[in-house]
């Protein structure tokens, strides 16, 4: 074979993929991933697969594994515009692990997928830092992930994140609609803001239609619009598990896309109906801002945004006091927002009634 010199052939780097930058990103993220380590985790970052010692499940009589996967939608565009990358990971963990805890499962481990137009090592490490911090708040380990560089498909500053998680619950402690009874109380847990749903509507109304700037200080929000829109999603996993340990819980509902009524209906049996009284709380100012600015009907807002409630617990009436005390001790703003009734003439599993408190 003849040797050719003086020419430049095609290469992965020439195509836009920087392997060295990817390696640098891995090195930067290792310290954050280490903070999520649980005793069941084997090995370190960099293997082809994350390892979790399943012998820990021998303590269960009949362990059920719960899994979920999700992303954070178009909220990533707010992070991109602001150049803030270390909070969006909290949103990702919340979207995955708060789905898992709904059935009463303890979060065990999570993996992430980060797709970028160009690998900026510090930026990728900041994304993983946020995911790792979220995993600590959820009590789970971050056992691995993937960072993919897609030049030509995404712009240099574009990115997206997704994740998958696994949890475990004892079969006879599985929560859900089959446990819900007439007379149960509906306890609402306050959201930290918009969380990670409805951003296509929010961006359309505030940024596109109204032409607001993310740097604009909004008096009613008490901070800039960008700071409000980037507020991390609250992670309720450990709060929900604390409830399960301290009192009887029949069901949880994670209020995400579709709104409060639709998500609560998912854990209500066909024979029963959930009534939630709007007068028991006042949605945060950002919800009014979106509705008023875009002339968005209340029904549309409620089926798109969480309206100030991020998680619901359905508990027996006699468990209410202990549940509220447990949540208060953990710094969670919670209140009785409704009850479970007979189906009667109702055609839906859950409904909001009354007007929001002023």
Description:
It is a single chain. By secondary structure, the protein is α+β, with helices and mostly antiparallel strands. 32% of the residues lie in helices and 24% in strands. It is built from eleven helices and 14 strands. Strand 4 (106-116), helix 4 and strand 5 form a beta-alpha-beta unit. Helix 1 packs parallel to helix 4 (121-138), helix 3 (88-100) runs parallel beside helix 4 (121-138) and helix 7 (237-246) packs across helix 11 (320-329).
Give the helix tally: 11
The run of helices and strands is HEEEHHEHEEEHEEHHEHEHHEHEE
Going across the major beta sheet, what is the strand order?
A: 10-12-7-13-11-14
What amount of the residues lies in strands?
Answer: 15-25%
Structural class: alpha+beta
- Report the major sheet: 6 strands, mixed
Approximately how much helix is present in the residues?
A: 25-40%
What separation lies between the terminal Cα atoms? 82 Å
Please tell me what the overall shape is. globular
The average pLDDT score comes to: 90
């Amino acid at each position: 074979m003849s040797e050719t010199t003086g020419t430049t052939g095609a290469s992965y780097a020439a195509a836009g993929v920087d392997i060295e930058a990817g390696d640098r990103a891995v090195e930067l993220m290792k310290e954050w991933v280490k903070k999520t380590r649980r005793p069941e985790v084997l090995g370190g970052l960099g293997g082809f697969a994350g390892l979790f010692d399943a012998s820990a499940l021998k303590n269960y009589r009949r362990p059920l594994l719960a899994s979920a996967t999700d992303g954070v939608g178009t909220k990533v565009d707010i992070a991109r515009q602001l150049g803030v990358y270390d909070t969006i990971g909290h949103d990702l963990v919340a979207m995955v692990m708060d789905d898992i805890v709904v059935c009463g499962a303890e979060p065990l481990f999570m993996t992430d997928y980060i797709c970028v137009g160009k690998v900026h090592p510090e930026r990728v490490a900041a994304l993983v830092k946020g995911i790792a911090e979220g995993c600590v708040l959820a009590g789970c380990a971050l056992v691995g992930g993937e960072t993919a560089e897609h030049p030509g498909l995404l712009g240099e500053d574009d990115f997206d994140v997704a994740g998958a998680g696994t949890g475990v619950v004892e079969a006879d402690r599985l929560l859900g609609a089959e446990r819900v009874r007439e007379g149960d109380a509906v306890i609402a847990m306050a959201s930290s803001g918009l969380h990670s749903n409805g951003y296509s509507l929010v961006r359309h109304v505030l940024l596109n239609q109204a032409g607001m700037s993310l740097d604009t200080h909004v008096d009613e929000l008490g901070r800039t619009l960008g700071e409000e829109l980037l507020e991390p999603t609250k992670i309720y996993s450990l709060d929900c598990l604390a409830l399960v340990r301290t009192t009887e819980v029949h069901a949880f509902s994670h209020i995400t896309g579709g709104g409060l009524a639709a998500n609560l209906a998912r854990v209500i049996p066909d024979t029963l109906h959930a009534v939630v009284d709007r007068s028991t709380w006042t949605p945060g100012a950002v919800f009014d801002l979106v509705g008023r600015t875009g002339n968005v009907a209340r029904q549309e807002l409620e089926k798109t945004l969480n309206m100030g409630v991020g998680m619901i617990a359905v508990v027996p009436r006699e468990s209410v006091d202990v549940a509220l005390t447990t949540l208060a001790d953990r710094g969670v703003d919670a209140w009785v927002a409704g009850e479970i009734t007979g189906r009667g003439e109702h055609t839906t599993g859950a409904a909001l009634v009354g007007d929001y408190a002023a």
